[in-house]
Amino acid sequence: MANLIGHRVNVLDKGWVELVDLMPHPASEISGDLAIVNAARVSFLGESKGPEADKKLLFYLLRNAHTSPFEMVEFKFRVHAPLVTWWQWVRHRTFHFQTVNAQSGRYTPFEEDDFYVPNMWRKQAKSNKQASDGELEEASNEAFLEQLTAHYDASFTLYKNALEAGISKEMARLFLPGFAVYYTWVVKVDALNLMNFLRLRLAQDAQYEIRVYAEAMYNDFFKPLLPWTSEAFEQYVLNAEA
Ligand SMILES: Cc1cc2nc3c(=O)[nH]c(=O)nc-3n(C[C@H](O)[C@H](O)[C@H](O)COP(=O)(O)OP(=O)(O)OC[C@H]3O[C@@H](n4cnc5c(N)ncnc54)[C@H](O)[C@@H]3O)c2cc1C
Q: Is 36 in contact with 61 (CB distance < 8 Å)?
């Protein structure tokens, strides 16, 4: 069974997502898929009946919305992402945001390169007022990227000057470009609610800056750790909606 605790995946220009902990812990040698099946079998006071029957039961559970056994698997992630991603992420109330721990901009000063620099500008979509579609022409792309980094440099200089003048960190950060600042937070989520997050944020209408985190969590953690569940998820949820 894969032990991915401590594994970190790079996302965007300087973000990442890391698996901090997992329940069931790999040392228990009970896979996440089996923990789900065993939880469901409590109803009948039984446990594993071998891989074939176990996988069949797991597929039955997801297909028939018998979802609570999927809450028996929990992931704890540390995430480093720009605030534009954070504001969308925190809308997922069941992502245990009541237990979130986030970096404090009142305590830790920001660094010069704590800002998200996209590798290109996406154009405003014509059909969807909140989406993007296609890429800006190359010359404009470069020019606006240069303007963005100049803006970050100027903002950071104002921030640094404010700190040097004795202004508190909690106020000096008003000089920083808010949506672009990288933040770090730790969150817990169970497999059921992570599937809800993934369903919404892997979708093509999700903003790129959160979709790439969903892709990293799904491809690098969820899929290898819960192979039966991800197979059922793709069959009954992702592809069922396509
Ligand atoms: C493409 C996209 C565009 C969006 N645009 C906007 C926008 O313009 N403005 C905006 O404000 N938000 C927007 N959102 C956020 C969206 O409205 C949801 O808040 C967010 O996706 C979280 O989804 P959720 O409620 O299913 O997740 P969670 O909050 O994690 O909840 C999971 C599930 O638990 C249940 N649940 C949780 N809380 C309650 C409750 N209080 N009562 C009953 N059931 C509950 C529901 O079944 C819910 O689906 C957007 C999301 C997406 C994916």
A: yes
